[in-house]
Design goal:
It is a single chain. A six-stranded mixed barrel has the order 3-7-4-6-5-8. The chain is globular. The protein has about 280 residues and is an alpha+beta fold. It has five helices and 13 strands.
C-alpha cells in the first residue's frame, strides 16, 4: 500500500498540470457573457509590454493538450512566428482568475491568450484596418472560440481599438527579446509608451475556407454542393502552388460578423467546419 502512495501523488500532480491548461482557459469559451470594466480606462496611460527573456512558465507548456475534443500542439519556439486572423478579447468576468500559466489574469495589463505559442511569449499585434500596433505578453491559453487566433486583455484590446466591435482582423508577429532590445539600442529609441500607429494599414481580404484537397475533382464536387445549398454566394476553387492543394473558399466577405454567420450556417448544413482565412 505504501509503495503505491508516491504514484498516487504523481498522478494527482499530472492532473493538476492538465487542469491549469484546460480548466483555466477552455471554460471561457463555453456559453458566457463577458463585459468591460464599469469605469473606462485611458489607454494613453497604459504602456506596451516590454519584451524580456524569461524561462518557460511551470504550467501551460505541455507538449500538447486537448480542449473540446481537439488536440493542440505547443510550439517549442516562437521565433519567426507570423499569422493573420481574428482577435477577440476577454475582460471583467475573468479578472483575478488564474491563467493557464498559473499567473493571475489582470484585464488592465497588456497580456493575451494564444493556443500554441510558448508561455510566456511576446508578440506584436497589428490591426489591419486601422493600422494600430501593440505589444503584449502571452501568458494564457485560448481562444477556443471558432475562428479566433488571439484573445487580448481588455486593456490591450482597447489600445488596439477592437473593444466596441468585439473583434478585429490582425497580424501577429513574435518578438525575440534579444533582437528587440538590440535593435532599439542601435536606433537609440526610448521604450514604447504610446500606441504604435502605422501610416497605412495593409490591404486584406476575408474568406471562409471550407475544404482543401489534393484532387481538383473533389474540390469541384464540394464547390458544387455548396452552390446548391447556398445559392448565389461567391464560391471559388483555387490551386495553391505553395501547398500543392486545391482550396474551396467563399468570399471575399464584408466583415467578421458575416463570416461568423456564414460559418455557422455551413456547419448546420452538415459540411466540415470552415475557418476564416485572411489574404
Amino acid at each position: 500500500m505504501n509503495s503505491l502512495f508516491p504514484l498516487h501523488h504523481r498522478l494527482i500532480a499530472t492532473l493538476l498540470i492538465v487542469l491549469f491548461v484546460t480548466g483555466c482557459s477552455s471554460s471561457r469559451y463555453s456559453q458566457y457573457r463577458d463585459s468591460a470594466p464599469a469605469d473606462d480606462i485611458d489607454t494613453r496611460r497604459i504602456t506596451n509590454a516590454i519584451p524580456r527573456a524569461e524561462p518557460r512558465s511551470k504550467y501551460g507548456n505541455s507538449p500538447s493538450y486537448v480542449v473540446h475534443g481537439k488536440r493542440y500542439y505547443v510550439m517549442r519556439d516562437s521565433r519567426n512566428y507570423v499569422d493573420r486572423g481574428i482577435a477577440s478579447w476577454y475582460g471583467k468576468k475573468f479578472h483575478g482568475h488564474r491563467t493557464s500559466s498559473g499567473e493571475t489574469y489582470d484585464m488592465y495589463k497588456m497580456t493575451a491568450a494564444h493556443k500554441t505559442l510558448p508561455l510566456p511569449s511576446y508578440v506584436e499585434v497589428r490591426h489591419l484596418k486601422n493600422g494600430r500596433s501593440i505589444i503584449v505578453r502571452v501568458n494564457d491559453r485560448g481562444p477556443f472560440h471558432d475562428n479566433r487566433v488571439i484573445d487580448l486583455s481588455y486593456a490591450a484590446a482597447k489600445k488596439l481599438g477592437i473593444t466596441s466591435q468585439g473583434t478585429g482582423v490582425v497580424e501577429i508577429r513574435a518578438i525575440d527579446p534579444y533582437e528587440y532590445h538590440r535593435n532599439r539600442t542601435m536606433a537609440r529609441k526610448p521604450a514604447p509608451q504610446q500606441d504604435i500607429t502605422n501610416a497605412s494599414s495593409s490591404d486584406y481580404r476575408l474568406f471562409l475556407q471550407v475544404g482543401a484537397f489534393v484532387s481538383r475533382t473533389n474540390a469541384e464536387q464540394l464547390r458544387n454542393r455548396l452552390l446548391a445549398e447556398l445559392g448565389s454566394q461567391t464560391i471559388n476553387t483555387g490551386y495553391s502552388e505553395e501547398k500543392n492543394i486545391y482550396r474551396v473558399r467563399i468570399g471575399p466577405l464584408v466583415n467578421v460578423e458575416q463570416a461568423d454567420q456564414l460559418a455557422t450556417r455551413i456547419s448546420q448544413l452538415g459540411f466540415a467546419e470552415p475557418h476564416i482565412v485572411i489574404d
